[in-house]
Specification:
The structure holds two protein chains of two kinds. A two-stranded antiparallel sheet of chain A has the order 1-4. By secondary structure, chain A is mostly helical. Chain A contains 14 helices and four strands. Chain A has a domain of 207 residues. Chain B is of the alpha/beta class. Chain B folds into two domains: 167 residues, Rossmann fold, CATH 3.40.50.300; 76 residues, no CATH class. Chain B contains nine helices and ten strands. In chain B, the strands form two sheets. A six-stranded mixed sheet of chain B has the order 6-7-8-3-9-10, with helices on both faces. In chain B, helix 3 packs across helix 4, helix 3 packs parallel to helix 5 and helix 4 crosses helix 5. The longest helix of chain B is centred in the last third of the chain and has 17 residues. The radius of gyration of chain B is 18 Å and the shape is globular. Classes of the chains: A mainly alpha, B alpha/beta. At the A-B interface, helix 7, helix 8 and helix 9 of A face helix 2, helix 3 and helix 5 of B.
Chain lengths: 318, 252
């Protein structure tokens, strides 16, 4: 019963997203793509944060690496977007492997500070390596080449065409993250969050699993960054700024850390709220802060977590 | 010597001026249920912590099944067959009992790295987990989160997790502390059965002398980091030094 409901919700969501792709204005398309890209970022991030219990403040570095990866690849190597995305993911995962190697030796606040420090280093590298990254101007005017699969050549120049590529990667990410959560690897990560000493005494090398979670979440951040670049057609070093690292943290917290769909719901709320508030005021951070406070204090376990609990309680009563 | 499972050679450990192990030498034979006893502060917990890899020794060697494991990390010792349970129930609080047991089972079956298969659909793992839950008497609560268990049940689960790692040598740190008589009987019966089977060699650290003397075939008495008595329960009871520093106070 319960799992049937989940499939129905997922099917409905995909139908709605396909509908948006065919019938919506460019503005709605743009918002939907932003939501999906942020969801990919946050879902991957939550493997590390909600599942493994490690709070990273440096994931913008991997997002930016994905974005720069695509940009540089299409400028110097090949304009095929899939090649670019693969390069972006690989670069982000590789950077995550190096940074993670040092970070996973520590936990809690030390881990968070280490990721912050590494993130700022990546930011200043991107800022200073002007010849490669364009410095503070970043890289702009990146064209979307066509997706050519042998005989088939799909143009993604228009937003309404690119939208379906984003949707494809969003659905793929959902599937992958879901499989990871059901898998032995996902269970071990939850074990590490609950009790890392006991996990070690179950015969599992905790550091290696933490590193694996770090790399996986970094790869998803890279994918999100790659798609983000193709959407905006430019990237600046601020994509790697630590304030950008806060986005997946906030999104996961709002939606619900211990849930699969939390980051997605959080992304919807985050993007829409921002869009809505910015129409009325320039200090959107102030109002967003107030709303965030209300959600975190009022909804224990995030929006998804508290709603599920409410539904459970109501169904018990009736 | 063939029958020796674990050998300890000249093991020493001091925290500042406090000596918790001083040139310890002993070996544990396969299948011999051994108890380690001693007054508070005798170095029992430290000894277990050193043997299982929680604390590094200052000097000395630990040989497990002919292999020097003195510098091996915890998880590798566990995979070699050396596991422990904890004094305070050390379980995965928010995970179900099934998941609690599944984690060491996956580790033993070397499936923990797979990230696309579903745990719940793996029949082999489920069978093994159910077997262990049944053994500790918690099968009916397999979907309950561990944090919802009573204290005694959590101790049973703790022993279950340790057993699920399929150890050859298992250290139990006060396995019956905080259990009610029913749970205590169950856990002691389990230890006896498994020990008689010869699959697992148990080493128990206990305060409860009834448990120690009814269960053990061999008793090692620690006092200030030294072994002051070692032998069958009768020999240890008769040892004058042991009576003086330890048994005289508690057992009459």
């Amino acid at each position: 019963m319960k799992s049937n409901w989940k499939y129905i919700i997922v099917a409905l969501m995909l139908l709605v997203l396909i509908g948006i792709g065919y019938f919506s204005s460019r503005f709605v398309l743009y918002l939907a793509m932003k939501i999906m890209i942020l969801s990919i970022f946050a879902m991957g991030y939550n493997i590390l944060f909600g599942r493994t219990g490690l709070l990273s403040f440096g994931h913008a570095a991997f997002y930016a690496t994905g974005a720069y990866g695509v940009a540089l690849c299409s400028m110097h190597v090949h304009t095929h977007p899939l090649v670019g995305i693969m390069v972006g993911i690989a670069a982000a995962a590789f950077l995550a492997l190096i940074i993670g190697f040092f970070c996973v030796r520590h936990t809690e606040i030390y881990f968070a500070m280490l990721t912050l420090a590494f993130g700022m280093m990546v930011f200043s590298l991107m800022w200073n390596l002007r010849d490669i990254t364009g410095g503070d101007d970043g890289l702009s005017g990146i064209m979307r080449g066509s997706v050519s699969l042998g005989f088939l050549k799909i143009s993604i120049t228009k937003d309404s065409q690119f939208y379906f590529l984003v949707l494809f990667f969003f659905a793929l990410s959902m599937l992958l993250v879901h499989r990871i959560y059901q898998s032995p690897f996902g269970l071990v990560l939850a074990g590490i969050r609950e009790n890392h000493v006991r996990t070690e005494f179950a015969g599992l090398g905790v550091k290696r699993y933490r590193l694996a979670a770090f790399v996986v979440s970094g790869a998803f951040a890279g994918l999100a960054g790659a798609l983000g670049l193709l959407l905006e057609s430019n990237v600046t070093p601020f994509a790697a700024h630590w304030s950008h690292s806060a986005n997946p943290v906030l999104v996961s917290l709002m939606g619900g850390l211990q849930t699969f769909s939390g980051p997605i719901v959080g992304s919807i709320v985050f993007v829409l709220l921002r869009e809505f508030i910015e129409r009325f005021t320039h200090n959107w951070m102030l109002w967003f802060g107030v709303i965030l406070l209300a959600i975190i204090l009022g909804f224990r376990g995030g929006i998804v977590g508290s709603t599920t609990q409410l539904v459970k309680r109501l169904s018990k009563v009736s | 010597m063939n029958n020796s499972l674990l050998q300890v050679r000249d093991l020493s450990k001091a925290f500042g001026n406090v000596v918790t192990a001083k040139n310890l030498n002993f070996s544990l034979a396969r299948g011999v249920l051994t108890s380690i006893i001693g007054p508070n502060g005798a170095g029992k917990s430290t000894l277990i912590n050193i043997l299982t890899g929680f604390i590094p020794p200052d000097s000395g060697e630990i040989i497990f099944q002919g292999k020097d494991i003195t510098r091996e990390p915890i998880d590798r010792r566990v995979r070699l067959g050396l596991c422990r349970s904890f004094q305070v129930a050390n379980v995965f609080g928010h995970l179900s009992l099934f998941e609690n047991i599944a984690i060491p089972v996956l580790a033993v079956e070397r499936k923990a790295k797979s990230f696309l298969r579903s745990v719940a659909k793996d029949g082999e793992v489920r069978k093994e987990v159910d077997k262990i839950l049944d053994r500790v008497g918690l099968l009916s609560q397999s979907h309950v989160p561990a944090s919802a268990l009573s204290h005694g049940d959590r101790r049973l689960l703790e022993v279950g997790i340790a057993l699920a790692a399929r150890p050859r040598l298992l250290f139990l740190d006060e396995p019956t502390a905080g259990m009610n008589p029913v749970e205590r009987t169950r856990i002691l019966q389990n230890i006896r059965d498994l020990s008689a089977h010869g699959e697992v060699t148990f080493v128990i650290v206990e305060h409860d002398m009834d448990v120690v003397f009814s269960l053990s075939e061999r008793v090692i008495v620690l006092y200030r980091g030294h072994v002051i008595g070692d032998g069958t329960p009768e020999q240890v009871k008769g040892n004058p030094q042991v009576r003086e520093v330890y048994l005289g106070e508690e057992v009459t």
